């Protein structure tokens, strides 16, 4: 039995939809943006982890130790995330909310930066889940929350289960950590997203895939026909098409 055979898929409607951040809502990978002259080296490690070649815990803390991001740098990254949101992100989040669907961001990115995305997309702070950093009194890097499941392989499904998602629920993401959540049954539909980068190992294992470069293209995968018809007038009319 292949991985795809183990991934259940339940079509919409959903009570909650979860999004990854890096290379899903935004076109960038945050840690690579912070890396400066180390960017090429760390980008290779990031890609290998997100493709499932390396366990996340093998690189997560090591990347941060190499980069040692400052508070100011991570705040600037948050603004960069907002500047590089995919087209249609705001509209899709608004349509999901109008349809009564709860939305979360669950990311292995840095919480201080990812919260900028949540605010831009209208999410309450408690619906944004990412990795917390520690800084000293001068704003210099002083470590990360090593207890977070988001910094290790298999951690995303553990966190999703701990959150007690309202089911049925869907997850949209590009990486191996997102695929793990689907294999573990932590969500009812996994959309392997390739609108920024299509990772072969993830796409080949997923039952549902999208290479949409405008996130409004995900609406048929996340909203039922009845929900889309109900949105067919007013500011969300595009969802009903």
Automatic annotation (TrEMBL):
Annotated Pfam families: HAD
- State which Enzyme Commission number(s) the record gives: 3.1.3.3
Sorted alphabetically, the Gene Ontology BP terms of this entry are: L-serine biosynthetic process
Establish whether keyword Metal-binding is in the entry: yes
Q: Which GO cellular component terms, listed alphabetically, does the Swiss-Prot or TrEMBL entry include? A: cytoplasm
* Alphabetically ordered keywords of this record: Amino-acid biosynthesis, Hydrolase, Magnesium, Metal-binding, Serine biosynthesis
What cofactor does this protein call for? Mg(2+)
Spell out the InterPro entries in the cross-references: HAD-like_SerB (IPR050582), HAD-like_sf (IPR036412), HAD_sf (IPR023214)
Q: What pathway does this protein act in?
A: Amino-acid biosynthesis; L-serine biosynthesis; L-serine from 3-phospho-D-glycerate: step 3/3
Keyword Nucleotide-binding listed? The answer is: no
Q: Name one GO molecular function term.
A: L-phosphoserine phosphatase activity
Q: What class of enzyme is it?
A: hydrolase
List the catalysed reactions.
O-phospho-L-serine + H2O = L-serine + phosphate; O-phospho-D-serine + H2O = D-serine + phosphate
Q: Which NCBIfam families match?
A: HAD-SF-IB (TIGR01488)
Q: What is this protein called?
A: phosphoserine phosphatase
What species is this protein from?
Engelhardtia mirabilis
Please name the taxonomic classification of the source: Bacteria, Pseudomonadati, Planctomycetota, Planctomycetia, Planctomycetia incertae sedis
């Amino acid at each position: 039995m292949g991985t795809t055979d183990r991934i259940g898929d339940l079509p919409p409607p959903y009570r909650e939809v979860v999004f990854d951040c890096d290379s899903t809502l935004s076109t960038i990978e945050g840690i690579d943006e912070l890396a400066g002259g180390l960017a090429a080296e760390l980008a290779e490690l990031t890609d290998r982890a997100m493709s499932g070649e390396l366990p996340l815990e093998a690189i997560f803390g090591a990347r941060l130790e190499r980069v040692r991001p400052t508070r100011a740098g991570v705040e600037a990254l948050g603004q960069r995330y907002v500047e590089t949101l995919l087209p249609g992100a705001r509209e899709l989040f608004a349509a999901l909310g109008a349809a009564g669907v709860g939305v979360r961001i669950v990311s292995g990115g840095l919480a201080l930066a990812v919260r900028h995305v949540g605010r831009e997309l209208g999410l309450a702070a408690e619906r944004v889940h990412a990795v917390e950093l520690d800084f000293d009194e001068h704003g210099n890097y002083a470590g990360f929350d090593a207890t977070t499941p988001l910094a290790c392989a298999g951690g995303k499904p553990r966190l999703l289960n701990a959150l007690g998602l309202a089911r049925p629920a869907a997850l949209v993401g590009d990486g191996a950590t997102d695929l793990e959540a689907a294999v573990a049954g932590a969500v009812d539909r996994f959309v392997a997203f390739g609108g920024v980068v299509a990772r072969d190992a993830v796409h080949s294992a997923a039952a549902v895939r999208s290479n949409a470069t405008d996130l409004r293209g995900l609406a048929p995968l996340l909203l039922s026909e009845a929900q889309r018809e109900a949105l067919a007038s007013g500011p969300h009319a595009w969802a009903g098409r």
